[in-house]
Design a protein that fits this description.
There is one protein chain. By secondary structure, this protein is α/β, with parallel strands linked by helices. The chain has two domains: 149 residues, Medium-chain alcohol dehydrogenases, catalytic domain (Quinone Oxidoreductase, Chain A, domain 1), CATH 3.90.180.10; 151 residues, Rossmann fold (3-Layer(aba) Sandwich), CATH 3.40.50.720. 25% of the residues lie in helices and 25% in strands. The chain contains nine helices and 15 strands. The strands form three sheets. Strands 3, 4, 5, 6, 7, 14 and 15 form a seven-stranded mixed sheet that branches. A six-stranded parallel sheet has the order 10-9-8-11-12-13, sandwiched between helices. It has a two-stranded antiparallel sheet with strand order 1-2. β8, α3 and β9 form a beta-alpha-beta unit. The mean pLDDT is 97. Bound molecules: NADP nicotinamide-adenine-dinucleotide phosphate (NAP). NADP nicotinamide-adenine-dinucleotide phosphate binds next to α2 and α3.
Length: 333
């Protein structure tokens, strides 16, 4: 094995992402310059938004170009440090890139208070858990006895968002693809009900579960599913626009939902997007709250692990196709 391995975007996908859009290649061992640390990357996060970053249209990050090491998020251990405040053995998170070793400016990294197992820093306490937490705290704000609907409910963010809404005392209905995922969110995670969108329409499912109006919709999916729930919102409902996974892996994204702005006005609905990175100054607060729920046995999490950096492309393709339950991550070292 060479000293280092990296996964590079070989080609921009036009439609569905395929393994051939990536190249796994040998690389030299990087050396930390002034203000930098040398990291051994331990775990990589696989995020649906990685696919959106491959589009030439800028998102909240610059578009990834063919030839770039894929700029994914990860957890690493400091091997050598030329930066104040970072020492060998420190556990850090940040945009490590999909590689085994990286020399990175310390100012882009966050030192972590290590908790075991460390994978929690990518799943329930990481970007995943914090996205669910800030989306609900800041936008959804579920109240006792309200009805909360969560899409991609068996996935990383959705599974945590639904359980947090239950902790807040809401009635929670998940939407997921397939009978096994629906059973999982109800029986293992404690959601009140689930709708298998592959077996029935979301509208029929909400009716079958007696939903008169949705108070909070935690939307991970966008597309036609967003429109279905929008038409069933209660007065003063809140739509948390967390993500748009149904539209990332296609060359022909669906148009936005009907009902905007008419229904928003008539029903006084608040529909708001957010990016978790904007809350970095409050990450410790969210982590403490989430860790407290985990320790008390109120919050469960599932991790979907693939071993080996060369499997990162496969992991992303699998998440986009709904092959995962819980948080998908790559074990690098
Ligand atoms: N705003 C932020 O700061 C932020 C941060 C992190 C993540 N996110 C967003 O949160 C969402 C969930 O991310 P995650 O990491 O937790 O991924 P995830 O839910 O673990 O995986 C994605 C899931 O999306 C579902 N899906 C895929 N295509 C679909 C379609 N056409 N219709 C309905 N469902 C579909 C699949 O589940 P099924 O089998 O149920 O279809 C799949 O398992 C994504 O939109 C992501 O971009 C936002």
């Amino acid at each position: 094995m060479s000293e280092n391995t990296e996964v590079v975007l070989a080609d921009r996908p036009q439609g569905h992402l395929e393994p051939g859009h990536f190249r796994v290649q040998d690389a030299g061992m990087p050396v930390a310059g002034a203000g930098e640390v040398l990291l051994r990357i331990l775990w990589l996060s696989v995020d649906p938004a990685n696919r959106a970053w491959m589009s030439p249209v800028p998102t909240y990050v610059a578009p990834v170009k063919p030839g770039d090491v894929f700029p994914g998020f990860g957890l690493g251990e400091v091997v050598a440090s030329n930066a104040a405040g970072f020492a060998p053995g420190d556990l850090v998170e940040g945009v490590t890139g999909w590689r085994r070793f990286a020399a990175l400016p310390a100012r882009g990294l966050r030192r972590l208070k290590r908790r075991e197992p460390v994978t929690q820093h990518l799943s329930v306490l990481g970007i995943t858990g914090k996205t669910a937490w800030f989306g609900l705290e800041e936008i959804g704000r579920p109240k006792r006895a309200e009805t909360v609907v969560v899409s991609a409910a068996a996935g990383a963010v959705g599974s945590i968002a639904g359980q947090l809404a239950k902790i807040a005392g809401a009635r929670v209905i998940g939407i997921a693809g397939g009978e096994a995922k629906c059973r999982h969110v109800v029986e293992d995670l404690g959601f009140d009900a689930a709708i298998d969108y592959k077996a029935e329409s979301v509208g029929e499912g909400l009716k079958r579960h007696g939903v008169k109006g949705v108070d909070v919709y935690f939307d991970n999916v966008g597309g036609p599913m967003l429109e279905s729930v929008l038409f069933r919102m209660a007065n003063f409902g809140r739509i948390v626009c967390c993500g748009n996974v149904s539209q990332y892996d296609t060359a022909t994204p669906a148009p936005g939902p009907r009902g905007v702005p008419g229904l928003l006005v008539v029903k006084r609905i608040r529909m708001e997007g957010f990016i978790v990175l904007d809350y970095e100054a409050r990450y410790d607060e969210a982590e403490e709250a989430l860790a407290g729920h985990v320790a008390a046995g109120r919050l469960k999490y599932v991790e979907d692990v693939l071993e080996g950096i060369d499997r990162a492309p496969e992991g992303l393709i699998r998440v986009l196709a709904g092959g995962n339950t819980g948080k998908t991550m790559i074990k690098v070292a």
